[in-house]
Amino acid sequence: MQIARRLILAVLAAGGLAPFIGARRLLAAIPHGWPADAPVTARLVALFAAPESAAAIGRAYLAERPMEADPETLVAGILPGRSARELAMLDGTRLRALVRERHRGDFAAGRTATLSGWILSCTELRLCALAALSRQLG
């Protein structure tokens, strides 16, 4: 998968993709209190301080993997093995912990992609793709 190094550097310079800088900083952004009816997709996109910047990487990812261009598919890849009901009941603290755990597990298991020299976890890429789709869907 090829993404221009310039795009990644521009996003990093803007400070929009904290997962490239460190998962701790990324995951600190998610609010603790969510309305009971807030969709998990919105809560996951809220992991980004600047979802617009994440969406730029997400669009490039989806151009390479159009079969994942579906919010449910992406959520299933980010938090596999969890039912919609279970996901709906996750509070911010637990959601943060699960994504952090998955992110670390990606690197341990080799679930990564190299984009113009940057090694990113599949979880990071799917979160970016989710941000891209959420921007398209409004």
Shape field: globular
Q: How large is the share of residues in beta strands? A: 5-15%
| Major sheet: arrangement of strands | 1-2
Largest sheet: 2 strands, antiparallel
First-to-last CA distance:
27 Å
Q: Average pLDDT value?
A: 78
Q: What Rg is obtained from the alpha carbons, in whole angstroms?
A: 14 Å
Please describe what this structure looks like:
- The chain is mainly α and 138 residues long.
- The chain has one domain.
- 63% of the residues lie in helices and 6% in strands.
- It is built from 9 helices and 2 strands.
- It has a two-stranded antiparallel sheet with strand order 1-2.
- Helix 1 packs antiparallel against helix 5 and helix 5 crosses helix 9.
Give me a quick take on this structure.
By secondary structure, the chain is mostly helical. The protein is built from 9 helices and 2 strands. It has one domain (5-137).
Please describe the structure with a list of short key phrases separated by commas or semicolons.
138 residues; mainly alpha; two-stranded antiparallel sheet; 63% helix
Give a topology summary:
Layout: H1 5-14, H2 18-21, H3 23-27, H4 40-45, H5 51-64, H6 71-78, H7 84-89, H8 92-109, E1 112-115, E2 118-121, H9 122-137
Helix pairs in contact: 1-5, 5-9, 6-9
